[in-house]
Fold these 4 entries.
Entry 1:
Amino acid sequence: MEQYEKVEKIGEGTYGVVYKARDRATNETIALKKIRLEQEDEGVPSTAIREISLLKEMQHGNIVKLHDVVHSEKRIWLVFEYLDLDLKKFMDSCPEFAKSPALIKLADFGLARAFGIPVRTFTHEVVTLWYRAPEILLGARQYSTPVDVWSVGCIFAEMVNQKPLFPGDSEIDELFKIFRVLGTPNEQTWPGVSSLPDYKSAFPRWQAEDLATVVPNLEPLGLDLLSKMLRFEPNKRITARQALEHEYFKDMEMVQ
């Protein structure tokens, strides 16, 4: 670790601390993520293994670059490119964010998974609550990439509204916030929903609101895209590839 000089702490999470640092060899500013191993009886946390393996595979202009992995006693250091602006802070400070040409990069892949077979049995407790898809909230153990499209839809609306779309403080509150906007699902709007483990026939019956009143500053093409990202039925939700090909993005240059 002699190659890297810590400058300041810029974040802290469940498994470690992130520092702004300098690479002494190149004088480049980098980010150091320290993963604690002191409390781990079974070695390196699975979240760290996932993050390292996925980032080593993925090379894309919108994904943070992992430069190096350094293992020392009782800790692992991940060396990332340094991103000088946090998305949420930028959204809070820049009302014109949705129109900004700023380059967005994905980071923190601790809960990410590689996928091959589209549907597998996973844990119930994934995805930050405000961006959690309804099938997960209702207890589905089999889910796939549509849950990510739902999350992106929530972030899309948040970028436009400058506030979270479904800021629930518990799983049931999150569900009810979704239902108040999109309507309470039933077998007609979401075939099979009543068979999900946490679905209750006693749920309050809300009618769907017009998305144009929920996200009033979004143009019609954007509202069309958002509505397709926030479909209840996962198999009917727009895919990531289809979303990129949507008319809303027709005049935008994509990063390769």
Note: The chain has a mean pLDDT of 83.
Entry 2:
Amino acid sequence: MEEYKEDNNEECKQKYPNFYLADLFYTLQLSNLSLNERNEALLKLFEEIKKNNMYPYYSYVCGELNLDMDQEMYTTLKQKADEEMKEIENKIQEASENFDYVDTKNDMLLTNFYCKIGDKENSFKEYEEVYEKGIGIGVKLDILLTIIRISIFFNDINSTKKYLEKARAQMEKGGDWERKNKLKIYEALNYIMIRKFPEASKILIDAASTFTATEIISYDSIIFYVIILGIMTEERTVLDKNILNSSVILQVTSSDEDLYNYIYSFYHCDYRTFMEKTIKIALRVKKDRYLGRHYRYFIRNTRVRAYKQFLEPFKSVTLKNMAYAFGVSEDFIEKEISSFIANGKLNCKIDKVNDSIESNQPNERNTVYQDTIKKGDILLNRIQKLSRVIDM
């Protein structure tokens, strides 16, 4: 009977896929890239592809970016990859003939090879086959985490969701501390991809102090996300306690002046500085593989939060004073506020006679009271209808 030995399998867990390639691939999709920047990114991407004979990924890149494939390069990469695969198959065959058990490390050689060369379909197929065999919980979780990374690498939202659900279920059977923390980061990145920012923010704030998932993203990037998502979704008390005064986060922001001043100016209501820093931070957001797809949403919603925060203490404020506070023209602030009022983002109105903005911030206690009364009326109506049915 075959016995499967559990192995840490560091190559499977850590090294592949290489997200440096995914970042370069995303950069090449940016519309405002200069010719020099594009050529430099292409050169770096092809260098990485050649290192690991990634002929399937080379084909994928050429197709997605509408590049003319260098057939000679493709053939060379495939020949070298085929030679490596033959060696792996021989090693697996030799192990199966000489031993009465299958070592997980040997069993994973082919799966890791497909992952290394960027062959998504065969990676999924091979990892699934190993997963279905009688291996330990630890290796099963490593396989699921690797498949999730491959899904994120190829921006496959559906597969990411599917395998995150499987990983959560498997984790309940006995995942260790490190794997749980990695899964949290993967979940947060998925939430960012599908624009569930509140969920992502809460996970990342909680996981920042125990971050270990360097195989998929850098720690500095995690802190960048914590601050961006925090401004878009978190209450001021959370910003103060868990971000501005967090020693873990300060270790990164202390050497990143723009990022620190961005959240500091927002929290301390220095709106002129906030608007200035927004321009610089927005450029970084646009170039980011996870946040870049939400660039316009980020621009709109961070400004909306700043406008709401500014208007909250006032019943009325002049356009001139608000424009001065934000360091912009009166025309700009009027167009901005008008647009956000029309979209239902701001609860106020513009008085053109007095050139002022009249704030109509909802009273939370009154809103809860009215909602309770409304639900009570609905309940009474249902009870009355039910009593009529019973009487009949």
Note: Residues 1-9 have pLDDT under 50 and may be disordered.
Entry 3:
Amino acid sequence: MTEFGDKSMGALVWVPHAVEVWKKAQIIQKLSETQVEVRFVSDGVEYDPEDGKIMTYDVREIAKLAGEVSSNAMPICNTFDKLGVEDMCTLNHLHEPAVLKTLQLRHAQFVPYTYTGQICIAVNPYKWLDLYSKDLYFDYLNLPRNDLAPHPFALSSSAYIDMNKLGIEQSILVSGESGAGKTETVKIMMNHLASISGGGTHGSLVIDQVLKSNPLLEAFGN
């Protein structure tokens, strides 16, 4: 975040936008203790008809929408490469606009998974991607998590390792809106668990039974 004041002039920040939700802008003038004048800045290679447009915003409203701790703070822009970051906890400035921008960049490159600490966020690409080959099953079980791209296999491997090491039952929570890809994600992780545990045919049968029970369970509420 950047505290709103004379020293923040020229800083690149995110401001609310009716279409893009958040838009990159540059602070050009402090109008009062709570009002700021900004100039929209193009955030891509495509033509932006609003590039250079000047707008006035209430700093308090921006801080509230972005989830900033201080009511006098504005969400400052991070510097991103083409794929954003693999773990959003590594962002220098973590707020709602930074989260959405990271997921947007990765989704555009057909990279559906992003970590936030121990959480794996999935954005449904609505197409099958070649990210689930059996060659990867034991990579996520044996290699350090940071050496591999974000993936549900990392979560199922962690649960399997902890269950064997600690002897305690493990749970993986998969949540999301309807159509987000929860059922497919559960199937991906269960197939992975069946393979790395040596479940064989019996493991596949259990997976099939669990997945077929989903419609019944969802009838009681998703």
Note: The mean pLDDT is 87.
Entry 4:
Amino acid sequence: MDFSQLKFDANGLIPAIAQDAHTNQVLMLAYMNQQSIEQTLETGYATYFSRSRQALWKKGETSGHTQKLVAMRYDCDHDAMLLTVEQVGPACHTGAKSCFFNDVYVDEDAPATANVLQEDYATIADRAANPVEGSYTNYLLDNGVEKICKKVGEEASETIIAAMKANKEEVTYEAADLLYHLMVLLYQQGVTLDDVWAEMARRR
């Protein structure tokens, strides 16, 4: 990498935003210097520079909440980095998924988008990595592929029945159930949504 392309500040630092590779959610803002960028590229895991400790820190080194690097980019002004990562567990030290949880304004009427699928898939992956007592997702994963396939079949049948009745509201409800259980199956089989999108794009 040509570091002369980057505009570090007077302390040799550049702000770095971490973004979830599956949901596109902004996870956190940290700082990097040349050494932390080099270490991130070398190891494949996000390493930042702590301004308070004046030292490098690998994200998740003590907590286990690591960030596997998927892509690294810098902006048009060459003064900010964007790390696309696969986040294990919460990104925030408070235990929140993202450090950006203090709402200033949220349009409650904004329509849901396809990102909901990515967010749900990420939640399934997080449940697998960090089991929660009483979690239905963990129940399915713990019982294995046979149980998951049975539920996918049940939800598919219920969606078909709803469609045969021409009940839009019921079809919507059952389709949501079907998509959720299908995503659990995809995760259990090691298939990502990106794998599915790529196959769909190939068929166009």
Note: The two ends are 36 Å apart (CA to CA).
